[in-house]
Amino acid sequence: MKITVVGTGYVGLVSGTCFAETGNNVTCVDIDVNKVKKLSNGEVTIYEPGLEKLFERNLKEGRLHFTTDLEEGIADAKVIFLALPTPPGEDGSADLSYILGVADKLGKILKDYKVIVDKSTVPVGTAEKVTAAIAKHAKVEFDVVSNPEFLREGVAVEDFMKPDRVVIGTSSERARKIMGDLYAPYVRQGNPVIYMDEKSAELTKYAANSFLATKISFMNEIAILCEKLGADVDMVRRGIGSDDRIGKRFLFPGIGYGGSCFPKDVQALVKSSEEVAYDFRILNAVMDVNEKQKLFLMPKIFNYFNNDLKGKHFALWGLAFKPNTDDIREAPALYLIDELTKAGATVSVFDPEAMNNVKGVVGDKVTYAEHQYECLDNADALIIATEWSVFRTPDFDQISGTLKNKVIFDGRNLFEVSRMKELGFHYESVGRLAAK
Ligand code: UDX
């Protein structure tokens, strides 16, 4: 099938490449001339494990094309995916100007029937707005479908190729058939394609992310309670996770969720609720808990250093909001850097992938270490903000030998508390009992 993907950001590029991988002919359109040039020359513009190999293969075999020209890009396509940014506006609601702008243009240039798909996370009612924007000028038939993505950064290719489910929101039989054919190769293992109306599909995406964010904030509050009551969150987590209705996944306490999706989507759903005069109390609490959780380690750090961080130097491992990505949007590490420097401390940072992105935002407020152990030079303590695998089994002798004090504040519960005690570390983590 010939398809077009408008927008070559994270979702667009992964979707376009993965659609090409099953034999579709894909044209990706972007207004950014430089990006289109880079992509056409075989340069993958985002970091995502496994993407480069697929990208190179499909580009070489002529199934992936890039252009800045929308009209040329959609010429032979049967399906047009809109994978455009929907940044939060000043009031927290999603800004639809990119999507509606392209919809308006599409209305003017459509020459035959096409399915136009909202792939970006968009508020309930957007399919209606997109339909209206296209219909204003369109002289041919078309259908607008809501088909939200559920890709996790770091495993996006795998999530796309073998999705747990595909959600397709449409009231048109014709569009339903085309979308079903397009996704058939991805659900061969038996996972469902779930058809529904447009609005339910739009809400499904927000409900999924908000539910997961709720799970995390819930566990983070249980972790706080564990510390206060003298219980161990690792035990409680295992205890509840073995109940199928709760499930083992997404129960790990830490220093808060970040990234481009959870914070933005929870906020947008609260905003949508307000617009229909509903106060979504649980989600307000989820956001509130998460804001505080990002600074969960700070009181522990202050306490250890007798409330005075002036002149102290910290090593910070992990900057990305989670492992296997260079994405630092809403990353807890940035909040920690802010608090530490505000308190008069200096910080040296290391991350396997996100150093350049942090340089762009934080500049010379911190020093950038070449290596995870060099980062420890002269530091009074090590703080861990992201659970990269390379931090999980470090050389503790080297850590002990380099840090000024054997002190670790771990925001991701990477190490066994008893082991750290044996090794002679002062070790603080999230919601776990001190070693006896
Ligand atoms: C998420 C959704 O999982 C995905 O379906 C959606 O399409 C986009 O948003 P992503 O933002 O890539 O994907 O990250 P995810 O792996 O879900 O993690 C989100 C955040 O939750 C991270 O900050 C992570 O550190 C945190 N988290 C996750 C926890 O704190 N504890 C957990 O147990 C799991």
Automatic annotation (TrEMBL):
It catalyses: UDP-alpha-D-glucose + 2 NAD(+) + H2O = UDP-alpha-D-glucuronate + 2 NADH + 3 H(+). Transmembrane segments: none annotated. The keyword Nucleotide-binding does not apply. Pathway: Nucleotide-sugar biosynthesis; UDP-alpha-D-glucuronate biosynthesis; UDP-alpha-D-glucuronate from UDP-alpha-D-glucose: step 1/1. InterPro entries: 6-PGluconate_DH-like_C_sf, NAD(P)-bd_dom_sf, UDP-Glc/GDP-Man, UDP-Glc/GDP-Man_DH_C, UDP-Glc/GDP-Man_DH_C_sf, UDP-Glc/GDP-Man_DH_dimer, UDP-Glc/GDP-Man_DH_N, UDPglc_DH_bac. Residues 315-417 form the UDP-glucose/GDP-mannose dehydrogenase C-terminal domain. Keywords: NAD, Oxidoreductase. SMART domains: UDPG_MGDP_dh_C. Its EC number is 1.1.1.22. The keyword Oxidoreductase applies. It comes from the Bacteria. It is an enzyme of class 1 (oxidoreductase). Belongs to the UDP-glucose/GDP-mannose dehydrogenase family. This is UDP-glucose 6-dehydrogenase. It comes from Chitinophaga horti.
